[in-house]
Amino acid sequence: MNLSRRGFLGAGSLFALLGVNVAPAKALASTKASSLKRGRLTTTICPYCAVGCSAIVTSEQQDGRWVVTDVEGDPDHPINEGTLCPKGASLYQMANGETRLREVLYRAPGATDFEKKDWGWAAKEIAKRLKATRDATFQAADDKGQPLNHTRAIASVGSAAMDNEECWLYQKMLRAMGLVYIEHQARI
Q: What angle do CA 159, 175, 153 make, to 5 degrees?
């Protein structure tokens, strides 16, 4: 079938004249799910893309720790108005997935196997390596003596899951460390 743009628009106009509603429909979540009676409700931002959709996470205490029992879109949020895309709808699986890593796996240089480490060790190791890299590559001035106060050996990619205040603090920290290459996932 060979259909031109003009023919397509003409057919749409004909449908409209015949009373067929061709306007896009808008689906909104009107209320929070009434089936969720117990648990702690927490709002969060979906970490997948840069849109900033809000989700409501329901969690309960089980065996002394908080466990996610449900994730749904936040109907009060102006961006997604209660809807979530397929990736956002899978946030529950991200929190409770069987294959999710729950501990730090470290492979030493030259090693073939991973070893389990605790989170405290990992945080200290990252900080130690960041400082060592910054100290080794920090450039206070250029050849003409003009101040630079930066390092080009470290880069950062920001996250869509951060709100404006967190982004501001994160930027301040990165700039204080002298980073030049600061990017955000929404621009990549």
A: 85
User: Which residue ranges does the chain devote to CATH 2.20.25.90?
Assistant: 40-96
pTM of the predicted model, to two decimals?
0.58
Cα dihedral: 41, 42, 47, 50 (round 10): 110
Dist CA 131 CA 121 (whole Å): 15
Q: Is residue 170 helix, strand or coil?
A: helix
Q: Which fold has domain 40-96?
A: N-terminal domain of TfIIb (2.20.25)
**Angle subtended at Cα 154 by Cα 120 and Cα 159, rounded to the nearest 5 degrees:** 70
For 106-143, the pLDDT digits (tens) are 999 999 999 999 999 999 999 999 999 999 999 999 99
Residues in the chain: 188
Segment 42-73, tens digit of pLDDT? 998 888 877 888 999 999 988 988 889 999 99
